[in-house]
Amino acid sequence: MDIQLDTLDYIFILAAYLIGSLSSAIIVCKIMGLPDPRGEGSGNPGATNVLRFGGKKAAAITLAGDMVKGLIPVLIVKYLDATSVTLSLVGLATFLGHLYPVFFQFKGGKGVATMLGVLLGFSWWVGLATIGTWLFMAKVVKISSLSALVATALAPVYVWYWFNTGISIGVTILMTVILFWRHRSNIQNMLKGTEDAIGTDVK
To answer: Which of 86, 63, 60 is nearest to 75 (CA)?
Structure first.
């Protein structure tokens, strides 16, 4: 596949990474007078960890923030009629910004909500199918990490069905692989039977 990017494409990709680097969990906790999520619970700056010590409101705002920052950059370049290559790379850059934020010593979250936002930007059907899978699994198994892993494992299939471009499928597979790697401690806990259920120790 011939990948050709111009200067504006690189600017979009860099801007997407910087937007992704805005950690919703850290910002929300600071505004709401809560402890830094990197020093509480699992130490992960994400909605699930914020839920443990900050409550449902803070977690919901964090979740929304992480999803929106994944969605907006993709929608902007889509509105500007960017190629599927630029669109996919902007989504990937936003995702990587969340995982390795330049503003927070490159120590970010695990990427589930931001990936969902990116997928919504690719196609509403892809995003809604992935979110629906997560909600269904969460209802059945009541474990956030397992629900996320199942949903994102199916995401490349949804992208293939509803948004079938080679680069978008490849980028989605890459995000899924990275997300599984970021959840390796959760996977180990699940194998041991010690992974927390959704809502455990919620205030």
So the answer is: 86
Could you give the C-alpha distances from 52 to 76, 145, 170, 197, 201, in angstroms and in order?
34, 14, 34, 11, 6
For 35, 37, 78, the CA distances from 41, given in Å and listed in that order, are 10, 7, 38
CB atoms within 10 A of CB 165: 17
Q: Which residue pairs from 169-173 have beta carbons closer than 8 angstroms and sit at least 24 positions apart in sequence?
A: 170/88, 171/88, 171/89, 171/91, 171/92, 172/119, 172/122
Give one DSSP letter per residue of 72-107, joined into a string: HHHHHHHHTT--HHHHHHHHHHHHHHHHS-GGGTT-
Q: Could you tell me the pTM of the whole model?
A: 0.92
- CA neighbor of 48 nearest in space, from 60, 36, 30, 32: 60
Note the pLDDT tens digit of each residue in 96-124.
999 999 999 898 999 999 999 999 999 99
